[in-house]
UniProtKB/TrEMBL annotation:
Domain of life: Eukaryota
Cellular component, GO, one term: nucleus
Biased composition (Polar residues): 100-111
Keyword flag Metal-binding: yes
This protein's name: Zn(2)-C6 fungal-type domain-containing protein
One Gene Ontology biological process: DNA-templated transcription
Cross-referenced PROSITE patterns: ZN2_CY6_FUNGAL_1, ZN2_CY6_FUNGAL_2
Amino acid sequence: MHSFGSAPMQHQHIPPYHIPPTLPNAPTPIPVPPAQHARPQPDTDRARAYKSRNKRPCDFCRYKKAACHLDNQPPCELCSRYNKECTFVESPAKRRRPNDTSPETQRQKQNGGHDAKPQDNHPFANGPIVADGLDMQPELMGWEGNMPPPYPMPQMSIPPPVDFAAYDPALYREPSMQFEPFNHMSNSTTDPALENMPAPIPKAQSSFDTTPSQQSVTLPLHLQLPFESTTGEASLDHQASSNAQMVGLSGESDPYLLSRYHFDRHNEASFQRIRVRQMCGLDNAQGDLPTYFAIQHNAMTSKAQPPERWEVLEQYRREVEDMVGNDVGKRLIVLFYKFVQPYFPVLSRSHWQLDENGICEPSSVPTCILAAIYGHALPFCAWDERLCVDVYTPPSADALFRLAWLACQPELHTPSLAVLQTMLLLVQRRPTNKHVSDTPFKWIMMTSAVAIAQTLGINRDPSKWPLPIWEVQLRRRLAWATFVQDKWLALNSGRSSHISPDDWDVSPLTDYDFEEADRALVSDNLSGTAHFLHLCSLTLIVSEILSDLFSLRATRQLQHSLEATIDVAKPLRIRLTEWHAHLPPGLKLPLSPSLPASPENSARPLKPPLHSALHQLDGNGSLHLAFITAKIELFRAMLRPRVEDANGATAVQALRAGALAVGREVLEFVDGLSARELEAFWASYSRTNFTLASSFLLHLFVSAPTTLSSPDKFQHARECLDLLENWRAALRVKSRSCDLLNLALLKLDGVFVRGLGELVVLGEGARGVWAERGGS
């Protein structure tokens, strides 16, 4: 039996050694394997042998301060162990050998390897140092005086490096490990001096949807590029050691003032500490708003970063890799794209590193996203030919989601698309306790996701921006995914939405906003994009329901006026009907097998009894439930006003008949759910939507009046109670195989066990029927 986790590898903890990047105008050295004339050593001797200038260590071993053990050709032993590209692109550095026994050397060792006193000939003397347009003097002085001794190196003794370069201010980067962010080097930079750097894959495949602070690369994980190295990089999300933030219309930087600046051929204006990228100028033919992004070096946020940030993120990465091996990880990624991505398309596969089979390499996926992907894919292991036999020892989904959350935190100072994607996946996570409502933490996470989206400019339409196609597509999908999650969570929790339609300016999605693989048919005549496209259009209607009927101001104005409420709700009800009429056949609500065919049910035909369709998971259940929930919310608003006059009573009677029909519809929907729907992907807000149905049916009964126009004045109340009891019975059956229904059942059970007549003030009709049934 295969194991989910890979065997842990014993890593030796070695203090980092920062390699200065290549000068922009310096020729790139040709990678040459070291010559083979070092003194032979036994395998057990791990001390570094003398190496001539022709047999210098590779870049990664130089960074790790480790011996470079190379047999005949790259990669060396250390690069193979860490799965790094073995390169020799850095020029050999020169350093004056100090006398190890001198007092000055001993003092340097006590201060972390550098003299804390300023000296004229010392490369790190405390003087005004300016590099890459950044004044790093305060950070440098704090580093020299306060940096703790190097981290211990168990089981390895390595002498000081012999190729320590003389200090060059032009190559200076933030030296303190306490202050530097965890940044991977981007190999998508357009810097001329770095274009010839060896890479394991072509540039088109190595650009993936995250900032370089989390990219998987071939050089040390937290080695940063110079600030100017990504000048001209088309992607806003591939800015090496920098991050791009939207310039707001009313903030400290005025876009209309920036529109008067001179921009270079890369649409950038450079300052000492920041670059401004122009996406859309003021004098554009389309009349769009002036749009600019501020690109700043991550070092500017070093004071706000938590200490030992790099080590913490490395630890999270190791924990994820220990829980899920590489081969199993690939299978989980495939499951995610098959069973989750069609219904929540927040990822992009076209710019991630792919293996020979076209599957995403887990090593190229940021830690936070990777853990969230694994957590969402675990429920579908039974649909994989190998993982179906490994279900006895699966990793913990709770632990994976916890690591995804923790890995996000250090990145909040320099947010990226990767952080937003992870936050949305965390919000989409199904509840851990099936009997308890969501805690406020999910709403808080949604708040953070919206804030990150606005910081990254996701709320602006990038269709005409000079960005790579994959980034335009991803930004537009993320904008709508954020909008959908926020609106439905606002409805579920009864909170005010974080998103104002006036400040969310992204046009509706089309098929061209999805990757080709996502546009493939998931069933007969049903595109993989259909679910999310129609969910977005439905959410637009729900957004207006929330603002027009459930905002504080609207509720105060409408709660006593049935006529005004109906005037507001009527056009929204018409739009819901039109939305359902335009659904493709594959998305129509299936007919419940327990219902006889009738003209009323003919609008919802049975799905074709195809063998392939009957044995495939169908994740459209959450969309059907969302549509019914939207109608329930309309009737909840229309039933709020209390009407005393006869004319109003007639209108209320018609409304209650319509509400009863919606109640029957949700009951039929639950009765018709089969295993292929229950086992598929459900949006996280679906559980609360089921619970809303329970609350709606309960309120429909307890508020039931007597019916004066009918010979049986309790007829309507009796129908409401029958519907409520049938709903409770259906939940008892279906909740055994779907934990999304447990909370809806628990809410009703609590009321009935406590005593409906004692707990709730019943209407006249409800009180009579409850007494007939022997209730108390």
